[in-house]
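This is your field. Have a critical look at the following sequence-structure pair:

***
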Amino acid sequence: MSLNRLAPLTPNAWLRYDVIGRMMPPHVADVLEIGCGQGALGARLSARYRYLGLEPDPESFAVAEARFAELGGGQVRNASVADLAPEERFDLVCAFEVLEHIEDDQGALTQWAEHVRPGGWLLLSVPAHARRYAAADELVGHFRRYDPEQLAALVAKLGFENVNVREYGAPLGYLLEYGRNAVARHRLAKVTDASMEQRSGASGRLLQPANPAASAAARYGTAPFRLLQRTLPHGPGVVLRAQLPGSGA
């Protein structure tokens, strides 16, 4: 079964994946993904690396577990970072669209950094620019969005070096965000009693391609925009890569 069919990405995730692929650090053997959702991106990483994904939401975990079982590679746990043993460390710790869901983001980054080997890497994606916080952010349980320099400062406080931050998504990402905000304004009235934790848990299940045709449309429809965004230094999302000092991973 093809990865495209087994693990579909949303249009915005295709834009993000293009940037993540070009920012993957060298000499990585094992990868920890925090908040792997339904495992779509993790399935792709597991084809290249020894992979462990953590997903606390039981519904998303069940989908991810089935996908990895079909792939026959990688591992996923219905767990959080707090459940890892202290000695479990990785060449690369990554979290895509996760940090903005956590109220104590500096505390979370400190915890994540404990599982990066000396010389290893941290790779993050978050929604960009505090001024763009809107209905879609509120709906899915975002505490904030990040200005690129703000995100870089957070990881620098933990001693990470070689910090590389890239915005992505223009121009299609702006249109997709506009659509998400329009949908969210209608849905917010129905989730007024939902906690931030509940909204965050459900966020990974929103807007997922429902069938192979939708998955293929997302992949091929975004192809020219993935190339175009490489020429544009801005967008509604940001990816950060940083290295922990020490011996090579």
